[in-house]
Amino acid sequence: MAKILLVDDDKIITKLVALSLFKKLGAVCEAAHSFAAGKALADANVLDYDLAIVDYNLPDAREGEMIDYTIARSIPTLVLTASFDSDTRDQVLSKKIVDYVVKRDIKELDYLESVVRRLLNNRTVKGLVVDDSMVYRESMAQLLRNQLLVVFSAENGVEALRVIDQHPDIRIVITDYSMPKMDGLELVTQLRKHYKKDAMAIIIASGLGGASIIPQFLKAGANDYLLKPYSTEEFICRINANLENLQMIQTLKDHAQTDPLTGLYNRRYLFEAGSTLHASAVRSNFRLYAVLIDIDHFKTVNDTYGHEAGDQVIRAIADKLREFFRRKTDIVARFGGEEFCVISSLESEDNLPAFLELVRAGIQGITIPYGHHKITVTVSIGATTPRTGTFEALLKEADDLLYQAKNSGRNRVCIA
Fold first, then answer.
1. pLDDT digits (tens, 9 = 90+) for 202-221
2. Could you tell me if 38 and 144 lie in one domain?
3. Is 69 within 8 Å of 40 (Cβ atoms)?
4. pLDDT in the model for residue 210
5. Tell me, what CATH number does 353's domain have?
6. What is the mean pLDDT of residues 249-255?
7. Helix 35-45 vs helix 65-72: crossing angle, to nearest 10
8. Mean pLDDT of the region 118-142
9. Sign of dihedral through CA atoms 370, 375, 380, 383?
10. Does pTM top 0.85 for this prediction?
11. Less Cβ crowding at N or C end of the chain, within 10 Å?
12. DSSP string spanning 75-104?
């Protein structure tokens, strides 16, 4: 849960902001209405705050002193202001703030919420700055750090590829064009062999912006182009726009691949990824196993306690399955209704019957609170480890074994 220091002399604004951020992001705001009160909170809790939202003009600090104070204590600072003339804008942007929001009307709260959401998300986003100029490299890296990104640097394309080999989850790259050893255009070309635009954003930041150069980069796979010298505000806007695009694409992917109730993969993803994993297993001569898990007498749960209770039972079992199946290659999916499916590789040291018995017993040991009730359930499990056949045949055999477990009295594992 994020903790935010909120300093604004308008008590209505602070209440609205605190309520909005708590409801939409689960963030907890501690509010102060003056520089003195904000300073006291910052001094007492400096290590606790993930972010500060600070009004530029306070009754006892009319020149942004509270902004300087939170920045000096290494609290990432977002500025609120009621008016924003060019002089104030330049003064605010000269500081190491993360962004600013103008308080024109209540609609700005939606924008503020989106900015805070992005900043909190940025804490797990990795970025790479590539430039042979130490001045530009450090300047861009600092601007990214101000946006709360985890930042790496490289002097040229060759070094950049080494960094990305070590950190393949880098999501955004800002690179110069003209560099020794490997220039920006070749770097973009190499990166796009492994990373699509929806996996990594690449922004060119160069003083060379001729009519023939920019299209070359865009055709090679760059997402955006930033002409040096750039303003701090333009840099931030382009970075944020590209990160937001990546996030929107990821959200769409998640919605297409995951079950909304449990957060597990859905049936569609199971068949897509499972077929790919099965084909890889056939080529590489390693074995997969398929597990189908069905909640026993689930209709009785719904009839006795209601469908909301049934949903809680399904979520609880999904959480337990995540605990048991934690390999990176494991596919854990909600197969439909009260049924789950797991596809995993069979290692030589695996004792699959004993492991699946632990899974069965672990689920039986769950107690799901619902109102004044405590619900317990059991599951039946069918599992198979064939060496041949199609992915669909793998699932069919697991389903037959699940049916066998059901007909044998339920709450048991049948494996072949």
1. 999 988 766 678 888 999 99
2. no
3. no
4. 66
5. 3.30.70.270
6. 89
7. 0
8. 94
9. positive
10. no
11. N
12. --EEEEES---HHHHHHHHTS--SEEEE-S
Gap between the Cα atoms of 143 and 396, Å rounded: 54
The mean pLDDT of the chain is: 91
Q: Which residues are catalytic?
A: 338
According to DSSP, the residues that pair with 61 across neighbouring strands are 58
User: In this model, does residue 106 exceed pLDDT 70?
Assistant: no
Q: Is residue 258 one of the residues assigned to a domain?
A: no
**Are 212 and 310 members of one domain?**
no
Distance separating alpha carbons of residues 72 and 44, to the nearest angstrom:
15
Residues 42 and 28 placed together within one structural domain of the fold: yes
Quick check: 1 and 93 in contact, CB under 8 A? no
262 lies in a domain? no
Judgement on whether residues 95 and 143 belong to the same structural domain of the protein: no
* Per-residue confidence band for 110, with pLDDT thresholds at 50, 70 and 90: confident
28-32 β-sheet, strand order: 28-32, 3-7, 51-55, 77-81, 99-102
Euclidean distance between CA atoms 120 and 312, whole angstroms: 29
Last residue in a domain, options 120, 153, 185 = 120
CA distances from 233 to 97, 143, 205, 223 (A): 11, 10, 14, 18
Handedness of CA 353, 354, 357, 362 (dihedral sign): negative
Give the three-state DSSP class for 390.
coil
User: Looking at the domain assignment, is residue 68 inside a domain?
Assistant: yes
Residues of the domain holding 398: 267-415
Do 156 and 20 fall within a single domain?
Answer: no
Write down which residue in 93, 120, 147 finishes a domain.
120
Instruction: Examine residue 229 and say whether the peptide bond preceding it is cis (omega within 30 degrees of 0).
Output: yes
Looking only at the bridges linking them, the beta strands covering 126-130 and 150-154 are parallel
Co-location of 137 and 272 in the same domain: no
Rounded to the nearest 10°, the torsion over CA 400, 387, 273, 312 is: 40
Predicted pLDDT of residue 211: 67
For the chain, the domain total comes to 3
Side chain identity at residue 198, one-letter code: D
Specify if 259 maps to a domain.
Answer: no
Residue 140 predicted with pLDDT over 80: yes
85: Cβ contacts below 8 Å, ≥ 6 apart:
none
Q: Are residues 410 and 390 in the same domain?
A: yes
pLDDT band (50, 70, 90) for residue 349:
low
Q: For 301-336, write each residue's pLDDT tens digit.
A: 999 999 999 999 999 999 999 999 998 889 999 999
In a shared domain, residues 242 and 347: no
pLDDT at 350 over 80: no
